[in-house]
Amino acid sequence: MADATATALARLADRGDYTERDDYVFCSRLGRRLDRSAVRRRYTRARDAAGLRALRFHALRHAAGSLVAREAGAHFVQAFLGHSRMSTTERYLHAKSRPQDVEILNRAFAGSVAPVGDGSR
Questions:
Q1: How many helical (H) and strand (E) elements, i.e. helices and strands, does the chain have?
Q2: Could you give the angle at which helices 57-71 and 36-49 cross, rounded to 10 degrees?
Q3: In angstroms, how far is CA 47 from the centroid of its own chain?
Q4: DSSP 3-state of 33
């Protein structure tokens, strides 16, 4: 879990109610499970309050998976997203280069490229 997520979840302990181990993290005012429509309404209100464009709720999962794919290898992304098949994970790996990938390419091609303008081909 990312530090920012852990910090945000830890702040929920300050709410006073529904902080026991078996309580829902996100719940109704009565501590009960939120149904799909309640989650969708809360998401829409939060999105609109933040001034974000309309996105399907599942698009958040795809965005998170794509962000993780920029920094991690395919198997980490697969485990993070809970996919049983790598073919599902590949949807999140679409041409996302990681910072260290440039270093890998530089090492792979070091000394193998002729300088521009030296007449060789």
A1: 6, 0
A2: 70
A3: 17
A4: strand
Contacts of 39 (CB under 8 A, 6+ apart): 26, 57
pTM equals 0.60
E-assigned strand segments in the chain:
none
Residue 39 has pLDDT above 80, yes or no: yes
The two tokens of residue 78 are: 């697969």
Contact 81, 65 (CB under 8 A): yes
> Within 13 Å and on the Cβ side, how many CA atoms surround 81?
29
Encode pLDDT of 71-107 as tens digits: 888 999 999 999 999 999 988 887 566 677 778 878 8
Query: Which one-letter amino acid corresponds to residue 78?
Result: Q
